[in-house]
Q: What sequence folds into this?
C-alpha cells in the first residue's frame, strides 16, 4: 500500500514538474517575440521570417527584395567570380530586447545589440525602437511606417547627421582612419534610440 502511494506521489510530482516546465518557458510579451523573429530573419536572410514579422501593408519597406536580388546575382569573368550576394552578408549578435511601453494593442520595443557586416569585417552597436501593433487577426506586427516612428526619426536624424558631419571634419585621408570613420559613422547612424 505504501509503495502504491509513493508511486502515485512520484507520478504527481513528475506531472507537476512537466507542467511547470512547459508553461513557464517564455514570459516575453508577444511584441518582443515578433521583434526577436524579425532580427533572426535578417540574420538568416530569411525573407519569409522578416515578412511575417512586419505589418502586411509595410512589407515592401523591409529591403529584403533588393537583398534577395543581390544574392541571386553572381558574375564570372574568366577565372574571376564575383558574387554580389556576399556583399549582403550580415548578422545580429547579442540581441537585447526591452518592452518600453504597452497598451492593449500597441507596444514599443527597444532592440539593441551588435550588427556585423561581414563583407567589410565591421561590427557596430545598434539600437532601434519598434512600434508593434496587434492587428485584427490577433497577431502582432512591426509597423515600419508608424506615425510615432516617423516623429521620432524626424527629431533624431538631424542630430545623427550633425554627429557624422563632425566626425568627418576631424578625419584624415588615411585608409585606416577611413575604416575607423566608417565604423564610427555606422555606429552613429544605427543608434536610433534617444
A:
Amino acid at each position: 500500500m505504501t509503495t502504491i502511494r509513493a508511486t502515485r506521489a512520484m507520478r504527481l510530482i513528475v506531472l507537476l514538474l512537466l507542467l511547470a516546465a512547459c508553461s513557464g518557458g517564455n514570459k516575453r510579451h508577444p511584441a518582443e517575440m515578433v521583434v526577436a523573429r524579425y532580427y533572426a530573419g535578417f540574420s538568416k536572410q530569411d525573407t519569409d521570417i522578416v515578412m511575417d514579422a512586419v505589418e502586411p501593408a509595410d512589407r515592401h519597406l523591409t529591403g529584403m527584395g533588393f537583398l534577395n536580388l543581390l544574392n541571386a546575382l553572381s558574375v564570372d569573368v574568366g577565372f574571376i567570380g564575383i558574387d554580389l550576394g556576399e556583399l549582403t552578408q550580415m548578422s545580429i549578435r547579442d540581441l537585447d530586447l526591452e518592452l518600453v511601453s504597452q497598451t492593449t494593442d500597441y507596444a514599443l520595443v527597444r532592440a539593441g545589440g551588435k550588427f556585423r557586416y561581414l563583407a567589410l569585417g565591421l561590427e557596430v552597436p545598434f539600437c532601434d525602437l519598434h512600434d508593434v501593433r496587434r492587428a485584427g487577426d490577433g497577431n502582432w506586427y512591426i509597423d515600419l511606417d508608424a506615425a510615432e516612428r516617423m516623429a521620432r526619426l524626424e527629431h533624431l536624424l538631424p542630430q545623427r547627421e550633425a554627429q557624422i558631419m563632425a566626425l568627418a571634419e576631424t578625419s584624415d585621408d588615411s585608409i585606416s582612419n577611413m575604416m575607423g570613420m566608417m565604423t564610427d559613422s555606422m555606429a552613429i547612424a544605427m543608434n536610433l534610440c534617444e
In short: Residues 14-23, 64-72 have pLDDT under 50 and may be disordered. The chain is about 45% helix and 25% strand.
